Amino acid sequence: MQEKVIFTLHALQRMKERGVSEAQVYAAIRNGQKEQAQRGLSQYKLNLEFNREWDGRFYRVQQVVPIVAEEPGKYIVVTVYAFYFQEGEER
Fold first, then answer.
1. Based on the number of CB atoms within 10 Å of its own CB, is 25 exposed (0-12), middle (13-18) or buried (19 or more)?
2. 80 assigned to some structural domain
3. What pTM does this model have?
4. Structural domain tally of the chain?
5. 10 Å Cβ neighbour count for 62?
6. Domain range spanning residue 76?
7. Dist. CA 46–CA 32, nearest whole Å
């Protein structure tokens, strides 16, 4: 990825709360399904193999969804969502 990725403080806090690493956000931006988000932002959805517990339940899939403002030469990650699924439940 040639563009610079900048994380807002809000995004870093949400990543910590939701169990998402910077590497997972990079992977989502690079390989995820891009969709239009609100206010002219973009979101990138990427399903990752998880196969462990989160918040007391076992999940097979983690979906990482960074919300990004795209500017020339850079992506500004404004927040990050994480969704957890069993097999066959993905959104």
1. buried
2. yes
3. 0.90
4. 1
5. 21
6. 4-85
7. 5
Q: How does DSSP assign 35-84, residue by residue?
A: EE-GGG-EEEEEEEEEEEEETTEEEEEEEEEEEEEEETTEEEEEEEEEEE
pLDDT of amino acid 48: 95
Which residues on adjacent β-strands are paired with residue 71?
74
- Residue 12 in tokens: 């870093």
Cα distance between residue 6 and residue 30, in whole Å: 14
- Residue 14 domain flag: yes
Packing angle between helix 9-18 and helix 22-31, nearest 10 degrees?
A: 100
Cβ-based burial of 51 (10 A; exposed 0-12, middle 13-18, buried ≥19): exposed
**Residue 90 domain-assigned?**
no
**pLDDT tens, position by position, 3-61:** 899 999 999 999 999 999 999 999 999 999 999 999 999 999 999 999 999 999 999 99
